[in-house]
């Protein structure tokens, strides 16, 4: 994993590189909605959108980290309690573990 650190200089650099790989003609023609999951993601979405009429939306969500590695996000639970599991991690982790963690995260947030 160390070799992947610092491959992007900053968020602006990330936005430029992302812009290069997104099929912009399809984004415009199919009227894709850009969805951000963080404040930084909103800036990326705004950069990608540019002057296009596409909408930008924000999805409130919380990362679910691997049980033994708090730096490794394996899934994300959204505001409506939908869970998105990273496909490369799902075979290695038990689905029940991810669901339990998601419910615990949601319950913790409700108490505060």
Mean pLDDT: 78
Low-confidence stretches: none
**How many distinct beta strands?**
5
**Major sheet details:** 3 strands, antiparallel
Number of helices: 4
Look at the helices and sheets and give the structural class.
alpha+beta
How much helicity do the residues have?
40-55%
| Sheet with most strands: strand arrangement | 3-4-5
- Element order: H for helix, E for strand: HHEHEEEEH
Rg value:
16 Å
Span between termini: 35 Å
Q: Estimate what percentage of residues fall within beta strands.
A: 15-25%
Please tell me what the overall shape is.
globular
* Tally of individual domains: 2
For this entry, give a set of tags:
single chain, 112 residues, alpha+beta, 2 domains, two-stranded parallel sheet, 4 helices
General description of the model:
There is one protein chain. The strands form 2 sheets. This protein has a 3-stranded antiparallel sheet. A two-stranded parallel sheet has the order 1-2. It folds into 2 domains: 57 residues, no CATH class; 51 residues, Ybab, Chain: A (2-Layer Sandwich), CATH 3.30.1310. The protein is of the alpha+beta class and 112 residues long. The protein starts with 10 loop residues before the first helix and ends with a helix. The mean pLDDT is 78. Helix 1 packs across helix 3.
């Amino acid at each position: 994993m160390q070799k992947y650190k610092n491959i992007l200089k900053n968020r602006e650099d990330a936005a430029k590189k992302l812009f290069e790989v997104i099929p912009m003609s399809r984004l415009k023609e199919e009227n894709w909605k850009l969805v951000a999951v963080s404040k930084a993601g909103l800036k990326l979405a705004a950069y990608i959108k540019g002057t296009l009429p596409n909408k930008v939306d924000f999805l409130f969500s919380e990362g679910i980290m691997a049980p033994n590695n708090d730096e490794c996000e394996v899934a994300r639970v959204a505001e409506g309690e939908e869970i998105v599991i990273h496909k490369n991690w799902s075979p290695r982790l038990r689905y029940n573990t991810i669901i339990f963690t998601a419910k615990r995260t949601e319950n913790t947030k409700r108490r505060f």
